[in-house]
From TrEMBL:
Lineage of source species: Bacteria, Pseudomonadati, Thermodesulfobacteriota, Desulfovibrionia, Desulfovibrionales
Record-linked Pfam families: Fe_hyd_SSU
Chief location: periplasm
Database matches in PROSITE patterns: TAT
Protein name: Iron hydrogenase small subunit
Entry-linked SUPFAM superfamilies: Fe-only hydrogenase smaller subunit
Molecular functions per Gene Ontology: electron transfer activity; ferredoxin hydrogenase activity; iron ion binding; iron-sulfur cluster binding
Length: 112
């Protein structure tokens, strides 16, 4: 395909115009998204601060949690950082990177 100088300049001008237009549209779209995120964040905080909607904003004020950790007859009677709560509610890290590397070296494809 042969292109003379005038056609080349015209094509470059059109492509530049589309690039600038696309960049402006992308900026406007990003600004709209950020405005929406700001409004959403403001409404979530306003709803959270309204005591008529959420009476229990903190988990430590929840009567069911208090009953769970009750010292007399609660299931986790040894407290929030006790042995039973640690055993039931916490997870433990197990390093499996060596096994994953061995599988990769054998040709297995891992999705993580």
């Amino acid at each position: 395909m042969k292109m003379n100088r005038r056609a080349f300049i015209k094509t470059c001008g059109i492509m530049t115009g589309y690039a600038v237009l696309g960049l402006n549209l992308a900026k406007e779209a990003a600004a709209d998204v950020m405005d929406f995120v700001g409004l959403r964040q403001k409404s979530v905080y306003a709803t959270d601060a309204n005591p008529k909607i959420y009476k229990l904003r903190k988990s430590q004020d929840n009567p069911m949690i208090k009953k769970l950790y009750d010292h007399k007859d609660g299931f986790l009677h040894d407290g929030p950082c006790g042995h039973m709560s640690h055993h039931l509610l916490h997870t433990h890290y197990i390093d499996r990177s060596a096994k994953a590397a061995a599988l990769k070296s054998k040709g297995f494809k891992l999705n993580f």
